[in-house]
């Protein structure tokens, strides 16, 4: 962050349109990505504050502010109304214990305030000349490091799921966030039609494969659909690249099937064993426990259908079930964004959640263009990104983890802002 502050000071002394201004925004993204990859604690509001400061500085340069579109405004604000304010307006914070839990849950409740800063992104990207190409460049820098970093520790821990889970804790949301960046990398690799696009595609696949080998099954569910979307969207224009892509996928899967102790096969065998145990009424396994938690979520929802029993209420109930011997541990959440929101925040919470997923997805689909390659890239990658998070949310409550939640809102807000600017530039040309 010292480097970021230095560049910000340089910007204030120079022309806003200088290269340093663009580098400053790039560094903000890279700082976040690298803290995420290294799995280090980080005060996310620093990034939001930097965006706000960058936005305020545009006034000094008399740059016209670009009003965020309705989709971006709703995305950045809806969770404040459906989650955060419900705790303050109805005194639900009083239900939290004064020690230990209060600070943790306050962060979860207040995290949605950070996303208000993303309303400034259209103006910032325009004023600081931060383009989609530069944005995707930051993603590839992150993916190059991710591929090497994850591969090293996969080998170091001999692909042992238990040791990897302890080191990359929480491994499920960690994998979800970084695989989502790999998904974005795949789409840009097909957008780019130069020879280097094969290098970009390889970087994205190496990063994705290294993460898949860590064995988070819930992070795989959406990938076949995304692969199909890529092939169906680009096969006519780039059939050779699509064949290279399919061949690479086939080799990866074939090798994992052939190897007797491949991480992929081990996790699939574990799932099959879970299914057998569940049929024998043994739910004390990864899949079975999720089914129990989801069933209990519906019962909790019935007790407080409008506002829910609160985030802490969910954990408190799980601790009681552990005491009764029904759960092996006191789970903090229900391992599903849908069931957890239903139990914790009721109808109000599930409404807000669906808006944050469906609204941007519809926006991306609505703005899809076959003739404008820039819009095609932004809308396809945006729709795939949202779809990926929506599907991953079936088996994991990533909203409990600040970094992953921040990544979702930041990336979606970024892509919406780029689309708004692209359409604005197109209208100016007309």
From TrEMBL:
<feature type="transmembrane region" description="Helical">
    <location>
        <begin position="242"/>
        <end position="259"/>
    </location>
</feature>
<feature type="transmembrane region" description="Helical">
    <location>
        <begin position="21"/>
        <end position="38"/>
    </location>
</feature>
<feature type="transmembrane region" description="Helical">
    <location>
        <begin position="342"/>
        <end position="365"/>
    </location>
</feature>
<dbReference type="InterPro" id="IPR051533">
    <property type="entry name" value="WaaL-like"/>
</dbReference>
<keyword id="KW-0812">Transmembrane</keyword>
<feature type="transmembrane region" description="Helical">
    <location>
        <begin position="112"/>
        <end position="128"/>
    </location>
</feature>
<feature type="transmembrane region" description="Helical">
    <location>
        <begin position="71"/>
        <end position="90"/>
    </location>
</feature>
<dbReference type="GO" id="GO:0016874">
    <property type="term" value="F:ligase activity"/>
</dbReference>
<keyword id="KW-1133">Transmembrane helix</keyword>
<dbReference type="Pfam" id="PF04932">
    <property type="entry name" value="Wzy_C"/>
</dbReference>
<feature type="transmembrane region" description="Helical">
    <location>
        <begin position="135"/>
        <end position="155"/>
    </location>
</feature>
<feature type="transmembrane region" description="Helical">
    <location>
        <begin position="44"/>
        <end position="59"/>
    </location>
</feature>
<feature type="transmembrane region" description="Helical">
    <location>
        <begin position="405"/>
        <end position="421"/>
    </location>
</feature>
<dbReference type="GO" id="GO:0016020">
    <property type="term" value="C:membrane"/>
</dbReference>
<feature type="transmembrane region" description="Helical">
    <location>
        <begin position="197"/>
        <end position="213"/>
    </location>
</feature>
<keyword id="KW-0436">Ligase</keyword>
<feature type="transmembrane region" description="Helical">
    <location>
        <begin position="377"/>
        <end position="399"/>
    </location>
</feature>
<keyword id="KW-0472">Membrane</keyword>
<protein>
    <submittedName>
        <fullName>O-antigen ligase family protein</fullName>
    </submittedName>
</protein>
<dbReference type="InterPro" id="IPR007016">
    <property type="entry name" value="O-antigen_ligase-rel_domated"/>
</dbReference>
<feature type="domain" description="O-antigen ligase-related">
    <location>
        <begin position="204"/>
        <end position="353"/>
    </location>
</feature>
<feature type="transmembrane region" description="Helical">
    <location>
        <begin position="219"/>
        <end position="235"/>
    </location>
</feature>
<feature type="transmembrane region" description="Helical">
    <location>
        <begin position="167"/>
        <end position="190"/>
    </location>
</feature>
